[in-house]
Amino acid sequence: MDIIQTVWLALIQGLSEFLPISSSAHLILPAQVLGWSDQGLAFDVAVHVGSLVAVIVYFRSDLRLLISEWFTSLSPSQPSTASSLLAWSIIVATVPAALAGLLFVDFIEANLRSILVIATTTILFGLLLGWADQRYRGSKTLDQLTWKTALIVGFAQALALIPGTSRSGITMTAVLALGFDRTSAARFSFLMAVPIIALSGGYKGLQLLGEESVAWFEILLGTALSGITAYLCIHSFLRFVERVGMMPFVIYRLLLGAGLIFILWTQ
Prior knowledge:
The protein is mainly alpha-helical and 267 residues long. It has 11 helices and no strands.
């Protein structure tokens, strides 16, 4: 993989990991459409580590509070707080996706990475995002999260294993459909990213143990670019989404899906 591919793929990962447009689809597409060689497992892990570092740094104050309150909540004598309940909600929402990943990741890798699948999920879940944003978006905040809500969002997150779905997109769709406001939907989705990206990166990292050689320059460059881009993306998205909403991303997904179908039709 040359330097141009390294830069572009790292930027794609950083931008698309937290936008509701599917990072996995955008990382698969260069190989499918442009004929680029597959970036490899090591690079995939690296850019996800960059995204993980970005979300941890951005929400560092929130995460410190959540972790502290979660440990405090383990004591039976301590009353629950909004932060401890949010921490438990993140854990509950992570379980379905983690289990689904263990059970189905090999099948999905082998059978659901085609342009047709990506085009279909890009359009379908884009329409669902627009529907949830326009019809069901309400005024609930993260203080009103329940375990039932978290579990529903967790099952939605499990669908993001299918390329083109978008982890952030499907979780925001679920939170919006449950009556929460846009900022709450985005923040919960970003906070949920911490454990799920860590688990995914750890799983893929274990697979690297058998690798004989690693292109360290590309790995470090990809990690840095992905992290910086993801950090800026999170900051901009939180400022943008409450004012404008999800429709620009819905339109982008529909255009992307249509373009993929055209490419598939003309091959």
